[in-house]
Amino acid sequence: MRLDDYDPNINVEDQRGSGGGGGGFGGGGGGLLMGLLPMIGSRFGCGGIVVVLILMAVFGGMGGLGGLLGGGQTSAPTTQSEPRSGSDTKSSCSLNAESKAACNAFSSADNTWEAIFQKNGQRFEAPKLVFFDGNGRSGCGAAQSAMGPFYCPTDQGIYLDTSFFNELSTRFKANGDFAQDYVIAHEFGHHIQKLLGTNAQVQQAQRQASETEGNALSVRLELQADCYAGVWAAANKTRLEAGDIQEGMTAAQAIGDDTLQKQSQGRVVPDSFTHGTSAQRQSWLKRGLESGDPQQCDTFSGEI
Ligand SMILES: [Zn+2]
């Protein structure tokens, strides 16, 4: 996809090179609990992870997470971890090719969705793109590379360790720039769900749902984010290059739950559990691509 012109006014936060693990955890328990999160994620979805992270913060399981409940970061052990928030978008975006690609895709999605919201008379709020490596922080708790890219509704941040892009091609065999763009566009789709209230509705429903029902709702939420990614691509058709759609389809296939669960070792990606099968992910990405209409992304009524 020809995306080479990010808007310098996008919201970018950069936590890279901030001392890594120095700031994120209160003790050895953090690692153990973080290790459990993928399991919780697979059972209860991203909402479950958020709930657990909040409980962990409340009961002091993880130090240094002061930001989670809006109380500042008083317990942070180092001052190195101060994010270079928004101060220098250009240097963050040009740190390496992957950062540039992420900024370009993020910026494009930002513009596209702002226009769609405006057209529908809805108020748009821009999210932020947060780069981290090793251990970062988010409004939803620690950001760890092993979690893969994720969206945090609390601070409206799309969190990315760009090493995931390398992994997309090496581990998931999803090559090409569009595979990376799709990842950003999918996370942006979660931001759209936050703005539209879908996210909150699903979390509310999940509180009363059984585990199975909760997972089914997660799948619908994730497939809708895939569809929204397609809507974004459709709005930028003139920039698509030969092979892009196939790259997106390959990525959607590679990170489907059924495909992932066949892989036993390596990186765990909570945001890829309870996301639907490869076929479902491809189908909803395609639905967004072909219709270009967010109204066609209603994954909550009927068959998926
Ligand atoms: Zn997702």
TrEMBL record:
Residues 74-93, 274-283, 293-304 have a biased composition (Polar residues). GO terms for cellular component: membrane. InterPro entries: Uncharacterised_pept_Zn_put (IPR007343). Residues 1-23, 72-93, 271-304 are annotated as: Disordered. The keyword Membrane applies. PANTHER family: INNER MEMBRANE PROTEIN (PTHR30168:SF0), PUTATIVE MEMBRANE PROTEIN YPFJ (PTHR30168). This is Zinc metalloprotease. It comes from Sphingomonas faeni.
